[in-house]
Amino acid sequence: MFGRPSVFVTTPETCKRVLIDDDAFKPGWPSSTMELIGKKSFIGISYEEHKRLRRLTASPVNGHEALSVYLHYIEENVISALEKWSNMGQIEFLTELRKVTFRIIMYIFLSSESEPVMEALEREYTALNYGVRAMAINLPGFAYHKALKARKNLVAALQSVVDERRNQRKGGISSKKKDMMDALMDVEDENGRKLSDEEIIDVLLMYLNAGHESSGHVTMWATIFLQEHPEFLQKAKDEQKEILKRRPLTQKGLTLKEVRDMEYLSKVIDETLRLVTFSLVVFREAKADVNLNGYVIPKGWKVLVWFRSVHLDPEVYPNPKEFNPSRWDNHTAKAGTFLPFGAGSRTCPGNDLAKLEISIFLHHFLLNYELERLNPGCSLMYLPHSRPKDNCLSRIKKIPCS
After folding, report:
1. 79 in Cβ contact with 396 (< 8 Å)
2. What is the pLDDT of residues 16-36, one digit of tens each?
3. Which regions in the chain score pLDDT beneath 50?
4. How far apart, in Å, are the Cα atoms of 7 and each of 95, 315, 345?
5. Which residues bind heme (predicted)?
6. Residue 184, H or E segment
7. CA of 263: how far to CAs of 18, 238, 308, 330, 339, in Å?
8. d(C-alpha 306, C-alpha 283), whole Å
9. What is the pTM of this model?
10. Which option is the CATH number for 6-398: 3.55.40.20, 3.30.70.80, 1.10.630.10, 2.40.10.270?
11. 348 annotated as ligand-binding
12. What's the pLDDT score for residue 57?
């Protein structure tokens, strides 16, 4: 794979071992992927560096306080987007979702709400993402070539934001709202070392993937699956109506507690994550000769953790290709059998934020709207992530209040 001898691991036990054993395995992403995501991003740095960066950056994205603050901004954007789409006629549902999730993540990172800037950055990010799993052919017309150009443009745009912030600080101007960029610029380790510009930019690009790409795609699939299964749709809708009934009259909008009380919706999201397996593979590399299930993996060989085979294993999940949120009733996934965000020290850092975005969207969608797909039999594309070829061409219809 990508020019290196590689081993695929496909059972829960071996996947768990490879993901958790940091003494035997290190990140093993292809150099072409590293070139695009960034050498200082989470996927490329050493275990010690990763641990330090996670500790420093987790709270501004996934902390309880941070999520409570973001919740209202996410909700505002979801409500206005659904209203707008219902008046637009046909839309590419996935394209529009990705615009919303991008706007949210840019606000969290940079407090930026400039539409032209955001649309330009989103286009560049899409081109970058398409090249991450492409063959490393750096010639005009190929996805990898376009992705390298997109990375250059993204880095330049983020660098100008970093420079502007540094100049503001020198001039004694501090931003009214402390965002992720501020947090990364303030952070220092026990030796007083601060993050370099390259580290800040690569971390931001990494979080972009965690908090934008996954939530957009998974929201689309959850909406499609619910619309295709009226009994699950009704059950999810009833839960959301119940949340409204219990709400005090003086309360406006969702609270984090209400989102965490959405037990059935959480099962819908977990089932979508399992069935879609948004991140299908993780690359590791053997640090030394490693004995794995009786096989010796030579030092330097790539070890690919194939999440999709675990999530579609009929011994773990009966009728694995069937969408069935009820399979999660009284079911606690055993270690290594449910890996939508990876496992071990390198679990996806934006997982809680992604699930929050999906929950808020589905809450408002289920209560007030329905999806009519215009090409329900449309064939699928699988790279860089599985999606209908027409990006889910649909109409969003408002449903009468019941």
Report:
1. no
2. 899 889 899 998 888 888 888
3. 345
4. 35, 22, 21
5. 348
6. helix 180-186
7. 31, 12, 25, 11, 19
8. 9
9. 0.88
10. 1.10.630.10
11. yes
12. 67
